[in-house]
Amino acid sequence: MEYEVIIGMETHIELDTASKMFCTCSASFYGAEPNTNVCPTCGGMPGAMPVINARAVEFAMKVGLALNCSIHTRTFWERKSYWYPDLPKGYQITQYQFPMSYDGFLDIDVRDISSGNWVEESYRKRVRVRRAHLEEDTGKLTHSTRTSMVDYNRSGVPLLEIVTEPDIYSADEAYAYLSALRDIVRYLGVSTGDMEKGAMRCEPNMSLRPKGSNAFGTKVEIKNLNSLRAVRESIAYEIRRQTQLLESGGRVEQVTLGWDDERGATFMQRRKEDAHDYRYFPEPDLPPLHVSEEWLTRIRLGVPQLGLARQDRYRTDFGLSAYDAAQLTGDRATSDWFDAAVAAAGVAHAKAIANFMQTELVRLMKAGGVDIAELRVRPAQLAELVRLVDAKTINVNTARQVLEEMVNTGADAVSIVQSRGLGQVNDESALLAIVEQVLAANPKEVQQYLGGNEKVFGFFVGQAMRALKGKGNAPVLNEMFKAELEKRRA
């Protein structure tokens, strides 16, 4: 029998606020000494009173709007009771009945990236978002062979839990969904989305059913995955494991699983809880949360155009390939930089700007150890450089040299070209004289070319460019060499 997988995703995103969700402790805990960033409120001491972090509420609304959700303008907080060592209060303050955001969707592009290589072919997929609710994070448990240790520094950090409908049908779709969600929170500036540091943690809920069936199989949950690769590989592993189990007549149990990266396998952690096990009830120490229309409108106006919409715009308006569009929209700073450069240069130069940004500019940033926001060269300066190439004032090779100096000094392209005398040689009589000199100085290579070895043609152009110190008009030189060599063939 053939089976298909049905997946719903639960993703926890730590919001990048200055303080924790319900107290004034710093929310920046990574790398701090264990248990040094805790107060009576986030430590769960009796009598400590929580206070709502308004910035966390704004960040949660931003994400909800970016996910095309409706926003509950009036909600209240609830206690979710469970008893783990990493939960100092014995309960978690969360939103259950009325989440911050609900009934949204996220469109994603899905590609088969199992080979590790980019593929142009993709399909567009819509994943419905059931809810996105605010809560506080737990502490962190570290286990060794004989002991378990707990660090409460993370306890109380603002956490946004995003839950999808079971709309995902493969490991590749899960990977694409999580990648898109990470890009969104980074675009919005609400979270680093750094999975290795725990700022984003994913828990797929999945089941198998006979292909063509409408019923759901028994659900298992894979907890706290901390990389995109782990999401894809753990789901693929569970599909294989459950398929083999069902085909052998076995039965899938409703359990919570962990993922062992080293073994490349899941392992059981505990039997799965249901909602009633948590004994939700209203949080008595916090007032209901009311979001005014003015507040919501201000947040809505602050949501930028996101990555997938920008990709569509780049392909439609600028004629870029799917690869170029995806590379340029991987982060908001790069995409904003590209938009500014195209605005300065004109749409006709968009492809040339994209090429410079993805090759030379990336190389120079890596060499200098800087990101795009730290560059001394600005988008309008790159636009000016591209216009110089288009006007044949300089050639592409010279433009690469000029761009390197622009990055190092912040100087404009025109001033660099003028001060160093880098203008392209376009005078046809001067170029023809160089062509004739090169052919006269290399009779052996001329005979090789005339004898059918066309690979030697690049040698002639290279010699001419060397004589012209890289400033020759390459297309014109190519045509001149072809014409002069044909004359010698006769």
What layout of secondary structure does this protein have?
Layout: E1 3-14, H1 54-66, E2 70-71, E3 74-75, E4 78-81, E5 91-94, E6 101-110, E7 123-136, E8 140-143, E9 148-151, E10 158-164, H2 171-188, E11 200-210, E12 220-222, H3 228-247, E13 255-260, E14 265-271, E15 281-282, E16 289-290, H4 293-301, H5 307-318, H6 322-328, H7 332-345, H8 350-368, H9 379-390, H10 396-409, H11 413-420, H12 428-441, H13 443-450, H14 457-467, H15 474-489
Parallel strand pairs: 12-13
Antiparallel strand pairs: 1-10, 1-11, 2-6, 3-16, 4-5, 4-15, 6-7, 7-10, 8-9, 11-12, 13-14
Helix pairs in contact: 2-3, 5-6, 7-8, 7-9, 8-10, 9-10, 12-14, 12-15, 14-15
Comma- or semicolon-separated keywords:
alpha+beta, single chain, Arc Repressor Mutant, subunit A, nine-stranded mixed β-sheet, 490 residues, three-stranded antiparallel β-sheet, 19% strand
